[in-house]
Amino acid sequence: MTQAFFNIDTLVNDDLAVADVPVVFNEDAEPIAGFKVVGKNSARYQEAQRAIEILSIKRAVIKKQQIDAKTDQGAGQFVDINKENQIRLATAAVVSIYGFRSGDTDLKATPEVLANLFNKRPTWLAKVITAIEAETGFLPA
Length: 141
What we know:
The chain has helices at 43-61, 72-93, 111-120, 122-133; strands spanning 19-25, 31-37, 94-98, 101-102, 105-106. The protein is 45% helix and 16% strand.
């Protein structure tokens, strides 16, 4: 019987392991636009996650900011906060974008550009979040 193991020496620095998330394809099904992302174990993602947790704790202890989730308005606030947090995490994980232009200008992966893209195309946000969550995309073969 072969003993199975995982050699931790093969792990790449989590800030260097980048996955490709294509979202626009040409007629030959080749990717022409997309995102390059790091995973949940990267310092970028961990810092964003920590900032969100700190904000959540602060929001929970301030009486005037507490949300009544029993109401439609309160439940809607939770939904909006969740989407904002997803965009923050996805934005933190995106190290670059490719194939996106505005007029004659190639777009860069700034927080404003990414938030705009993710708000206009929620399915792209979902694809980026899925790629970030899929740890196998950041592990050696």
